[in-house]
Amino acid sequence: MKINFFKYLLAFFVLSFTLQGCVKESFPGDDLGDNGTTFLKTPAGDFVVHWLSPFQTKQKISLFDLFKDAHNSTELNSKQTVKMLFNQSIIDAYNEEHETELVPLPSDFYTWANGQGVEVAGNNISVNFGDGLIYGDFSIELDGSKWTDLASKYALAFEITDYGNLTPSSDLTDTIVVQLGLKNAYDGVYRYQTSGATSLVPNADKTVTLETTGEHTVRLYPGLLATYSNEVSYTIDPVTFHVTVTCPSLGVQTPQDARSNWDPEKKILTVFWKQGNGGRTFEETFTFLRAR
């Protein structure tokens, strides 16, 4: 009898461990029970920027996500529908408030792509959460062959009209604007250095960004360098690689030295300046570090 008893007892423990090994973790976070709140969030914020390399095919572009931050396993699987409106008029208000020049992305440039949990019907969008789905992915199929003006910064805008009984997080706003821009060959993050210090431009060594504003022009924004109160634009001749500069705060339109150039192999932009007539020459060097 004792032998049979121990056999049954051993079988019970083996079965228990087997069943425990088969149970999957149903809730990935900290289950807060009835004391928590399920929030709706936008992980990338209410203004999202995508910088794309030029392309001639159709590519799927993921614009942004809505995130249901469930506080317990029951809420994780409960069904909620968030409703949104595709509203390009928001772009005008954004431009006025932020002094930008975003252009609505032309409708023939793209089609809506199948995104997880997202349904699009005209300008009306539904994001269906539930059964463990916590992300709503907004995506488009973008036709790169139609985008020929590198200087254009296009945008898409969305408005949340119904939170579906979810609680908006403190940093969530009713509108989301997505900016799309193309990068030229000179766009990127650079190591900026100067030599031949003058009272105008001291020796410097820092990291800066040059952003596309045209097919062969990049812009250094004001405030990145203390000596420049206005933005500076660098235009590269695609044949000679000579560099010309527009810098309103310095009152000049071009460097006074033919050595100013772009090295396409090393990806180094070099500009030589003279301070006034017969003044000392100083040199600016932008050395490419990485894409942005």
TrEMBL record:
Residues 76-164 form the BT-3987-like N-terminal domain. Gene3D superfamilies: hypothetical protein (bacova_03559). InterPro entries: BT_3987-like_N (IPR013728), DUF7015 (IPR054281). It comes from Sphingobacterium tenebrionis. The keyword Thylakoid does not apply. Residues 188-289 form the DUF7015 domain. Residues 1-23 form the signal peptide. The keyword Signal applies. It holds the Pfam family DUF7015. It comes from the Bacteria. This is DUF1735 domain-containing protein. Keywords: Signal.
